Task: structure prediction
Amino acid sequence: MKRCNLLFIMTDEQRFDAVGYQNPCVKTPNLDALAEESVVFDYAYTTNPSCIPARAAIFTGRYPSQCGAPCYITPLPKKETTFMKLLQEGGYYTAVVGKQHFWKSEIEKGYDYMDIVDNHFPPAVIDDKVRESDFGLPANLTVTDQVPSYIRFLWENGFKKGEELFEEIDDGGIYRWKEDEKYYVDAYIGDKGVEWLRNQKPADKPWFLTLSFPGPHMPFDGIGLPDDKLYEEEDLDMPQTEPADILEKPPHFRDIFSKYGKVSEDGRAIEGGLSEEQIRKMRKAYYANVSLIDRKIGEVIEELKKSGEYENTLIIYTSDHGDYMGDFGVAAKAQYLSEVLMRIPFLIKPPVRDFRGYHEKSFVSSVEIAATFLTAGGIAVPDNMQGRSLTGFYEGVPERQEDIYMEARDLRGIRTKDFKLVFYAEREYGELYDMNQDPWERHNLWDHPAQQKTKQELLCRLMNHMVRLGENSQAAWNMGAPEI
Result:
């Protein structure tokens, strides 16, 4: 039997509600059409709210605490194995176009073809040498040295620094794009993806392609793109939260708020935060970026259809994590397990002709992507990989679970249908929310007398997850040892 092709489409920092099939304010007609032919997971979660650990978990099928990359500045150890490497060894031609964020890891990535672009704009260049680089490029590179293809593309077209491409229009991190769309990083990635499918995919073996867009991650620079005309600021959805809600949360929430406002010394009063005008501009820029990415995804899908390979291609679309985007008066992300950071868009278009899509309400995790691709490719899933293969959800044999586990260094969290708990290691405080009554997590019930039984039950469920994460945790204690 001919094995299916595998297409993994990723964005960076895209919230669960920043897509049209979940939020009519967002214009994503191509993803909406794809959703009609897909299993759409309404309650999909990332493992971690930051790029590097979240992606490390996706690539290895192991939680960040397991694979040795629990933080933003922790490279994946060389001893780990990516699912791309296993696909490669199993007979697939593997390729990547776009963002990966392995940071300083020396791990063997497992790609036959690589066009990795982790940059959002070019590092500043003076006299044809790199003056500054925040993207892992060595200092003093010249334009003739080996650099990411997008940087070379910009340099060759005369752009040597980000200020030539966009300008800041608000101190909330909002920018206006000034140049032709073709120089925008997500347009570039989309065009390169189409080019790979048209000219470089193999004809003699099944293929796997990661197409990974750096957007809509900050800088929020979608204003000035053609897609910003789709959005009138006064029509955009606004947060259901207030800045004062952070006063009920653990102390480190005040740290992220301090970038946008002030909290009194006694922690009982708050002022400032992103204004309504800033939030509307930010969301317009962010949604315009999402809409551009959607157009490029549409072009990729059209290329698949033209080549006759669409129906034999499994497509997974998701993001690594979300963004506050004005919730609680702040933006960006950090060491928090808030829903708007942890819940992500996620769909699977199966390699099945005329598949009728549906929305699935049970919990899934991005750590399960590895097992899903391996199973779809007919390759054995290693015992140390976490989670199920999600292929059962389109094959008619779904394996559902009633909660989801998540991490962020000192934080461990669990979400059920009714509640969400966040445990803080070596702290007396934590977070507990009634997700039916309070889906935006405004009222922390950690110390509420009536919720102590619920808290203890959730802590026990959380411990069960953490025990199972240990290496060989399911092995027998000894030969003939009794069951506990």
Remarks:
- DSSP finds twelve helices and 20 strands in the chain.
- Residues 460 and 466 are 10 Å apart (CA to CA).
